[in-house]
Amino acid sequence: MNFQVTVLKILVSYPDGFAVMSDLKRDMAILTTSRRDWAERTMRLAARVPDLDIFSQALVERLNGGWRITEKGRTVLDFMEARSSGPQTGRDGPVEQLSSEERAPKLVAFTKVGRSQRRRAARARARAKAS
């Protein structure tokens, strides 16, 4: 698994692209214990930008006990994903024909339900920080 690509993918799923370290660690643990699909996917994406360094290239900034993806980071991630899009095929044909077991795992942290829960938590943290 490519750590830097995983960080970008996690951060882009959070409101405003910001996640505290505990959330990053939790999501990273979920992804590292998922099937090999995630590791293979991140390695493919990382191969598209071989000199990727999220901190020295200012793709991610350290901020208030967490990390935030920058606009440049979003652009690089979009670039990596755009080059990988197109007609993707699995072992037996197009991705749409693969069984759910063969597709990348769906994680609660990256579903609409997970996003709304993270948004509520982020708003609560922001309110607590403001008071």
Keywords:
5 helices, Arc Repressor Mutant, subunit A, mainly alpha, three-stranded antiparallel beta sheet, 8% strand, 51% helix, globular, 3 strands, 131 residues
Question: Short description, anyone?
Answer:
By secondary structure, this protein is mainly α. The chain is built from 5 helices and 3 strands.
How many separate structural domains?
1
Task: Please provide the count of β strands.
Answer: 3
What about the largest sheet?
3 strands, antiparallel
What class would the helix/strand composition place it in? mainly alpha
Residue windows where pLDDT falls under 50 for at least 5 positions: 87-110
Give the CA-based shape: globular
Please, what is the average pLDDT? 76
Helix content: 40-55%
Beta percentage is: 5-15%
Q: SSE order in H/E notation?
A: HEHHEEHH
Backbone CA Rg: 16 Å
Q: What is the CATH C level class, in words?
A: Mainly Alpha
Tell me the number of helical segments per DSSP (H or I, 4 or more residues long). 5
Region (Disordered): 82-104
